[in-house]
Design goal:
Blueprint: H1 2-20, H2 45-52, E1 60-63, H3 68-74, H4 78-85, E2 103-104, E3 109-111, H5 118-132, E4 138-143, H6 150-161, E5 166-172, E6 175-176, E7 179-180, H7 194-197, E8 200-204, H8 209-224, E9 230-235, H9 255-261, H10 264-272, H11 279-302
Parallel strand pairs: 1-3, 1-4, 4-5, 5-9, 8-9
Antiparallel strand pairs: 2-3, 6-7
Helix pairs in contact: 1-3, 1-11, 2-3, 2-8, 4-11, 5-6
Organism: Bacillus canaveralius
GO molecular function, one term: pyruvate dehydrogenase (acetyl-transferring) activity
Domain Dehydrogenase E1 component: 36-309
Length: 318
């Protein structure tokens, strides 16, 4: 879990540099080798590693528009993922989808889009698993703002009726774009909504990856045993803006340094050093994670862009 968190953080730190290339001194969303919006998950790594540590290759994960920590924790091919974000032909979608439309069928991972769009896809995967008699689960990651969307409630209602092996992980990073949770959501935490569907709910405080691991283990056991869905909400912390270039005028910027003081990666490293691992072993994990990221970025930069004749390739059957 620590190695995966480090890999995710270093990946996004590297992506910030790549994304900002060509966009300064005046921020231009369409400029540079990685155009478009870019939503980063720095600080939210515990939500992904805590549950994905229990998943198999056959289990499905859907993600919203802030997907990198989920994709990395699920085992998405890092080279192809990075190439896709650069719009290269070697990418997961041959450069057609970009950062918000990552899709890797090899490990059953997909970005379902913004807000609650990925939950119905996860319900479909969970229904397929049940009908096929497979011991698979489906996990849908969403932000806390998505819990107020119709797709959230409709999906959970059906999943509860059919007792599907579904876990919905709500990442409460306190803001739906620029709207604070307290101004948009009537309940203190979205795990409480589980009672309305007669399913299990759990809340993980303080962005704690170890507690997320424990809570997820129980949720997945229930799902695999035919006991239906679970809503898990985790109190997590978005260190960066809603998107790169976000002026964050809605946010108290004094809170950001305080968030970084309770960095979950630092906390786990301190825990490991209390007798679980040596400094040398941790350094080896960090080095391995960073090497994989560096190789992925080198692969993406060296890959070619699609040619005009590639535009409709794989779109229509021959």
């Amino acid at each position: 879990m620590y190695e995966t968190m480090v890999k995710s953080r270093y990946y996004e730190d590297t992506m910030v540099e790549a994304y900002n290339e060509g966009k300064k001194p005046v921020f231009n969303i369409g400029a540079g080798p990685v155009p478009g919006e870019m939503h980063l998950s720095t600080g939210q790594e515990p939500a992904a590693v805590g549950i994905c540590a229990h998943l198999n290759k056959e289990d499905t994960v859907t993600s919203p528009h802030r997907p990198h920590h989920h994709a990395i924790a699920k085992g998405v091919n890092l080279k192809k993922m990075t190439a896709e974000m650069f719009g290269k032909i070697t990418g997961l979608g041959k450069g057609k989808g970009g950062h918000m439309h990552l899709f890797d069928p090899e490990v059953k991972f997909s970005c379902g889009g913004i807000i609650a769009a990925g939950i119905p896809h996860a319900v479909g995967a969970a229904l397929a698993a049940k009908k096929k008699g497979k011991n698979w689960v489906a996990v849908a990651f969403v932000g806390e703002g998505a819990a107020n969307a119709g797709g959230f409630h409709e999906s959970l209602n059906l999943a509860a009726v059919w007792k599907l092996p579904l876990i919905v992980v709500v990442e409460d990073n306190a803001y739906g774009i620029s709207v604070p949770k307290r101004a948009s959501t009537a309940v203190e935490s979205n795990d409480k909504r589980a009672a309305a569907y007669g399913i299990a709910g759990a809340y993980v405080r303080n962005n704690d990856p170890i507690e997320m691991y424990r809570v997820s283990e129980q949720a997945i056991k229930r799902a695999r045993n035919g006991q239906g869905p679970t809503i898990i909400e985790i109190e997590t912390h978005r260190h960066l803006g809603h998107f790169q270039g976000d002026p964050e005028l809605y946010r108290d910027m004094e809170e950001v340094p305080n968030l970084r003081k309770i960095d979950p990666i630092v906390k786990v490293k301190e825990l490991l050093l209390e007798g679980i691992a040596t400094a040398e072993e941790i350094e080896e994990l960090e080095s391995r994670a960073k090497q994989e990221v560096d190789e992925a970025y080198a692969f993406a930069k060296e890959s070619e862009y699609p040619k005009p004749e590639d535009a409709l390739a794989d779109v229509f059957s021959k």
